[in-house]
Amino acid sequence: MFKELTQAVRFTVVTMLLFGGGYHVVLWGIGRAAFPEQADGSLIRRGDGTIVGSRLIAQAFTRPEYFHPRPSGVDYNAAATGGTNYGPSNPDHLKAVQDRIAAMTAEDKVSAIQIPSEMVTTSGGGLDPHIPPAAAELQAARVASARGVPAERVREVIHAHIDPPTFGFLGRARVNVLELNVALDEAFR
Amino acid sequence: MGTEYLAVAFTILVVILTSLPLGWYMAKVFTAQRTVLDPVFLPIERLVLRLAGVDASQDQNWKQYSVSLLISNVVMWLATWTIVTLQQYLPLNPDHIGNMEPVLAFNTISSFTTNTNLQHYSGETGLSYFSQMFSVTFLQFVTAGTGMAACIAIIRGLSGNRLTTLGNFYVDLIRASVRVLLPLSLLVGLLLLSQGSPMTFEGAAHATTLEGPEQTIARGVVAPMAAIKQLGTNGGGYFGPNSTHPYENPTPLSNLVETWSILLIPMAMVWTLGYIVGRRRLAIVVFTVMLALYVPMVMFAVAQEAGGNPAITAIGVDQSTGSMEGKEVRVGAALSALWAVSTTVTSNGSVNAMHDSLTPLAGLMPMVGMWLNNIFGGVGVGFINMFIFIVVAVFVAGMMIGRTPEFLGKKVEAREMKLASLALLWHPLAILVGTAIACYVWATTADMDHALGWLKNPGPHGFSEMLYEFSSAAANNGSGFEGLGDNTPFWNISTGLVMLLSRYIPIIAPLALAGTLAAKPASPETAGSLRADSATFGFTLWAVVVILGLLMFMPVAVLGPIAEYLALR
Asked: Looking at the partner chain, which of A12, A113, A125 has a beta carbon nearest the beta carbon of B75?
């Protein structure tokens, strides 16, 4: 029995060093050498080096001159993430959806049936960085008028930022909201 | 949605095709034959065995094998529990996360030691980088290896003739984790890194957003865990919302790689059985039975999610892309449904969409996956669970045609049936009794919703949340209807105990079963034998799985998801 126990302890220590330590160090080294930008979290920086955010992480946009991301169950808190976990029949959920529809129809002068459901539902992590192209189109007029530029030029920026499905069939066409807004700020300074 | 359906079919096809060579590779690893990866990984295996003082030549009988399995798991439990409860004093904690509270740590470490990965904490706020690496990721390798080792031992028992030993536990465990899981995890980790999954020892990033406010972005040693959590059917995420978090599943390509990683080893294990036992036809029959359960479930769940939430359609929003609550745009509804079914039939438990927000009948499919728990199943233990059903199916078929039940030329007698029944009945017992106790506590607490804070959703969906939690714990799955307020003493202790019992009973009983089968002489099969590798037996097995595995869950399915579906229509 004692032999069994020492065997188990030695085995645990050795494998803990291998899988807890060695495995991570190898991938960390590969990350530093081959994918330093991704390994750090795909951060977007300003000219002075300060961080704007991460390409992969949604941030809050409420002003009319910016495109808005999908609603977030955690108010875009990237340090404590999560979904709403509302069940499909939950009255609170349906109320939240209706409130978002009301806000969007008022702000963007659109009717409910034009709104893609993505814009009135929350994502799993509350940090979905993307919206469907149709959801960007819907906001184009508002963004253009807030910035005092022709809607056509805003649409051009959108079109330049549509990511197609990978290999044509994996995932969906989408627009990265933060990248789009950064591009807008650059185009219409 | 058209291309999304194509992506679903493509994913399944790719896993099936790649599982064949991996099954062959694993058979070679576990029978100590030469493989192409030996120059790199064989030295590591030998080094670990030498440093750990394992005598590789010492074969164990089923009792010794089980004792080694249990004692090693106890030691790992104690070591990792100590780490998380003392993490504040340990290095690699840039975000200054405090010690995990002991009862939550009991649940967490029991969860990872049993390969369940049910999480009542959120990674970015609950664990330091050190704990993520040396507790969680470490356990994700060795517990997956433990399941595979037990499975291989059972396969050896089946193929043996008057065999008294099943192999050496530590050797099998190290082969599984160093020569199967490690190379695959390095490959998948590399792919995930390239897609944007972080791997940094620096703390959270502090951003000043375009509109001005600060945003703190938690990151860390994500990519390595994201790889092994998928490959080892662990499922425990680095962040609270698992692979819905963009850092844990950044692109459609990472989503493909991760879905592939969920199913790969569980599928390959069936082929490994075929190679080791020398009966490819049997492997084809078992694989086909599993596929004939899995594919209809995927199609049904995808169709349900593509149809959208009727309550939202009634409000008048465009749901042409399916039900999107709790889902990510880069993934879409169809691939989320595929993942939801795959992660629960295999006892993985990672998610790329919030299961609590699935439409009612799509949300039923993950529960069916966990109730059966043997369609491909967890690495190793999935086949063990199917093996139990095979024994029962052999027995049922034998009774029906009036012959002595036999499997692979060995008589299945009373002792075997008792052990199989023990393993088979524990699962529904844990789920149904557990849910019943939870309902009783909920219903008898005054002002329960405020007093307990358990249920996020009212009505039948609230019942589903409790049912799902015990299904997940008993299936060692780890996913959840996460609206459940589960970080309370009741849930931490009850699910902790269920996870431990539901891990070791269905491993030890089949090991005992295989031990007694191994010792029996294999009689040559004759024209009168009941052949396990025939289509007829395949149909019998399929029916036994559906009837025995699902019928006892029918009432709770009606009370939860089906009632919600009917109310929503």
From this structure: A12
